[in-house]
Structures are given as structure tokens and as C-alpha cells.
Amino acid sequence: MKLAIDHVSKNYRLDRESREVPALVDVSLSVDDGEFMAIVGPSGCGKTSLMSIVAGLLPFEKGTVSIDGNPIQGPGVDRAVVFQHASLLPWRTVSGNIRYGMELQRRFDAATMTERTEYFTKLVGLGGFERHYPSELSGGMQQRTNLARALAADPVVLLMDEPFAALDAQTREFMQSELLKIWAQTRKTVLFITHQINEAVYLADRVAVMSSRPGRLKGLFTIPFGRPRTLALKRDPKFLEIEDEIWKLIEEEQR
Q1: Sequence ranges of the chain with CATH classification 3.40.50.300
Q2: Which of 10, 22, 28, 110 is nearest to 66 (CA)?
Q3: Helix H or strand E encompassing 161
Q4: Arithmetic mean of pLDDT, 149-170
Q5: DSSP three-state, residue 24
Q6: Which of 214, 189, 193, 224 is closest to 40 using CA atoms?
Q7: Is 43 helix (H, G, I), strand (E, B) or coil?
Q8: Bridge pairing between strands 189-193 and 36-40
Q9: What's the CA gap between 189 and 192, in Å, rounded?
């Protein structure tokens, strides 16, 4: 396995009420090398808290999280996060934003950064837009830049927290298809959080379903479809059957 989440629990302190509220309880999940793992669950179930823990941005009370057997103790160059909002630097061009993550790490020389910037700009379909600023890009193009910045930094694990949630429905569908093409070429280990069940089933090798707060692992589905996948897969009866099974688990929690 590449990423191991082992019996992780997380509490939040409510100072005003002098008590702690559990957000995650005894969560265990493993992600294999090169696997695309998606996590779904009811709102407030702790999906983003779990992502922040893996990113090294949030402390936790119990359990361990490790990559290649090495415990995570804070942020590191072995992880990159793609958030819901692109958070690009407005004074930098597309190339400048993609290059930025590598500059922060200081482990790439100038020639390598230039080469990787050019490669990932083209990989995400932004060739010809290298000198454009974020304000000159559509939402989908901004998120492509965000993804290219994360990939260019060469993380071991790519963390994606609802990266398409802010996009309109048509752009979101297109970006899902494009993400699979990009992932097929990079084969990064991916942990992907989404509220949209059919997005999870379409993208992932496995889908983890979390319970209502406090978040626990409620179910784990292996997705049987081969790759490459097209958007037409979403109309396949087996696809709809899996989507319905996952929805039933979440619906139980909402009740």
C-alpha cells in the first residue's frame, strides 16, 4: 500500500461549552500505489477533516497515517492538495502559477522547472495560455492550472478535496473526463473527496463511504469497470446499480 490510515480519531474542542465533539472515530483505510480512491458521505461526516489530516494540516488524537510506511507528522513534499477553489496567485501567469509549487520545494533546478512547467501545461490542455493571468481564464481553466501546479511538484500522493464543486454541471462532466486522461498518464496515487456519488463511481477504483458525524468507515465498494472510461459509462445499468447502493448507505445515515 502507498497510503495507510490506521484507526484515526479526531475531536474538536468547543471552548464555549467546555467539551469535545468527535469528528472522526476509528477510521482505517489503505490506498494502493497508483490507485484512485474516492470518499463520499453525508455533509459534516469528516471527509475534509480526514483529508486535512492526511495533508498534515490537522492534528489528531488517535491512530497513525503513513506514506510508504513513514508516519505523517506535518505537511510534506510527498503530498499535494487540490482544493475546491483554485487559489491561484493573480499576479502570476499560468506558467508562473504552475511553477510556483516547485519553487517552494527548492528541489528542482531552473531547467527542470521550465521543462516540467511546459510538460504539465500541455498535459492539462492549456498550451497557448501560458502567459494568461487567472482573471483571463474560465473556472475550468483555473482548476486545470491548479491541477497542473500540484502534479508538477511531483507528489507521491495527490489529495483532491471536491475540486470540481464550484464548476457548472457541463464543465464538471468535462473535467471529470479530462482528469481520468491526465491520471492515466501520471498514475499518481489519488485520494479524492466528493459529494457527488456518480462522480466518485466514474473516477475511482474504489469508493469509501463514511457515516454521519462522527465519521466512521461505513462501506467500501470496488468499482468493476475497466479503463479508459467514457462519460457514457454513467448510463450503464451496473453503474446505476452501484450508485444506488452507495446512495442507500448514505440515505440510512441521513435518517
Answers
A1: 1-75+157-164+171-255
A2: 28
A3: strand 157-161
A4: 93
A5: strand
A6: 193
A7: coil
A8: parallel
A9: 10
Of 208, 196, 163, the closest CA to residue 182 belongs to 163
Class of domain 1-75+157-164+171-255: alpha beta
Mean pLDDT rounded to a whole number for the chain: 93
Laid out side by side, the sheet with 157-161 consists of 79-82, 157-161, 189-193, 36-40, 206-210, 217-222
pTM for the model stands at 0.93
Burial class (CB in 10 A: 0-12, 13-18, 19+), 41: buried
Q: What is the mean pLDDT of residues 41-48?
A: 90
Complete edge-to-edge strand list for the sheet that includes strand 70-71 = 19-31, 3-14, 62-67, 70-71
**201-241 pLDDT, tens per residue?**
999 999 999 999 899 999 999 999 999 999 999 999 999 99
Predicted confidence at residue 15, as pLDDT, reads 77
Percent of the chain scored above 90 by pLDDT? 84
- Report the SS3 class of residue 113: helix
